[in-house]
Write a structure and sequence with these properties.
It contains 13 helices and nine strands. The protein is α/β, with parallel strands linked by helices. It has a nine-stranded mixed beta sheet with strand order 3-4-2-1-5-7-6-8-9, with helices on both faces. Strand 1, helix 1 and strand 2 form a beta-alpha-beta unit.
Length: about 375
């Protein structure tokens, strides 16, 4: 328990032999439950998970056989099936085999490789079924400083946020520690995620060090969570529609010997397409279906008008090149139409920022 709140940690693992065991055994004592998901690894990740879980259990058990730390609610492994809802249990069982707990560790094996997002989704389903008060996500590669976990948990425990995430861009010192190619890619995805999610102050959306409240887990459709690397971006959109408060927490990252499994030629178009689709879904759901706000029309009309302006400008350029003369009035008209479209888009962004301003906070 952490400040009277139960804490679960989701650890997705794919070919993390040599890393995941240390993450398990170094987990803080106040963590009640570790959901470690083996995503059909081809190395000895599964064996390392089970061995590390046994070591962690033995280290936490005193000579009388009782748990020393705060995880007594889940220490024996009892109660998992009791608190699980039928729907949640079914969704979890269809995608993974949940083994008996080893101490506070729940070893989970995917029936097929589902990717990083799929593993996080599986862990979230298990944590939601258990009714855990706050659920943290930690990578299995040892990049995340576990001593920083209370900074993610405090805003949730104190009722200031429903979802917290690490942010490596808030501090100049942390930004400088990030490899240059990651910084550029992160900056681009940050902007696209701001537009898609409506959380305009939130940065570093790819940071996988997060914590989420039980209320937030229950407010989003976990069964529909994106299962590729953009799962964290997708979750932000869903949280915004549910009016959940989000806090960015300044946090360093550790870059070690691990190798990224992301294929950027596949990653960029997939995540960009998902963000565009989510953007329209958010406008429809939050500002047309659940409530009404003119910003949805500003966005749509602005994009359409700017598109007409671009098309008219290209057509004018084509005429000018083919006739070797510049049609002045047509050119001015296309520029004005484009400027009007951009102005409408900027108005929409200002309205959007105002709508979510009270849902965002930054913790330095």
């Amino acid at each position: 328990m952490y400040r009277d709140c139960s804490v679960g940690v989701v650890i997705p693992a794919y070919n993390e032999e040599g890393f995941v065991g240390d993450v398990i055994t170094e987990m803080p004592a106040y963590v009640d439950r570790l959901y470690v998901i083996d995503d059909q690894s081809t190395d000895d990740t599964w064996d390392e998970i089970c061995e590390a879980a046994a070591r962690d259990r033995d280290a936490r058990t005193n000579p009388t056989g009782n748990e020393r730390a705060s995880g007594q609610r889940y220490a024996s492994g009892e109660g998992y099936a009791d608190v699980a809802t039928d729907g949640g249990t079914s969704a979890l069982a269809s995608r993974a085999q949940v083994h008996d707990p080893i101490g506070r560790v729940v070893p989970i094996q995917h029936r097929e490789n589902l990717g990083a997002g799929g593993a996080i989704k599986t862990g979230y389903l298990a944590a939601r079924n258990d009714g855990v008060d706050a659920t943290v996500t930690v990578d299995a590669d040892g990049q995340m400083d576990l001593s920083q976990m209370p900074r993610l948990l405090d805003p949730i425990v104190e009722g200031q946020a429903d979802y917290t995430k690490g942010n490596r861009l808030l501090s100049a010192e942390y930004r400088e520690a990030m490899p240059r190619f990651r910084f550029v890619g992160n900056t681009i995805l940050t902007f696209l995620t701001k537009v898609s999610s409506g959380y305009w102050k939130t940065m570093d959306p790819q940071n996988g060090y997060t914590a989420i409240s039980q209320e937030a887990l229950e407010s989003v459709a976990l069964e529909e969570l994106y299962e590729y690397y953009g799962y964290c971006n997708d979750l932000l959109v869903k949280l915004n529609v549910a009016d959940m408060a989000v806090a960015d927490v300044a946090m360093p990252a550790v870059y070690g010997d691990e190798e990224s499994s992301i294929t950027y030629s596949e990653y960029i178009p997939k995540v960009s397409t998902m963000l565009l689709r989510n953007f329209f879904w958010r406008l429809k759901t939050k500002y047309l279906a659940l409530d009404f706000h003119p910003l949805a029309f500003f966005y749509l009309f602005g994009a359409a008008t700017a598109g007409v302006g671009v098309f008219a400008g290209l057509w004018t350029l084509f005429i000018a090149l083919s006739q070797l003369s510049v049609p002045f009035l047509e050119g001015v008209a296309s520029v004005l139409v484009f400027a009007l479209g951009v102005s409408l888009l900027l108005f929409a962004m200002v309205f959007d920022m105002a709508q979510s301003e009270q849902l965002e906070a930054q913790v330095y």
